Amino acid sequence: MNMTPDQLDSVYITLCETADSAGEADESEFLTRLVLLLALDVGDPEVIRRRINEARMPVAARRTG
């Protein structure tokens, strides 16, 4: 299922607000747990690895690539 731009924006806002509320000390743990929980939904290790590598790219590279 693909999300609309508005849905993706809403998810992004929720993610940012939740990460901020976790506090600097717990933000990394929250994001790691979230990725692992979402990985269970995706279910394909290769897709997960590809997305992890995509997330490592600088934002400017993702916009042009």
From TrEMBL:
Top-level taxon of the source organism: Bacteria
What protein does this entry describe? Answer: DUF2783 domain-containing protein
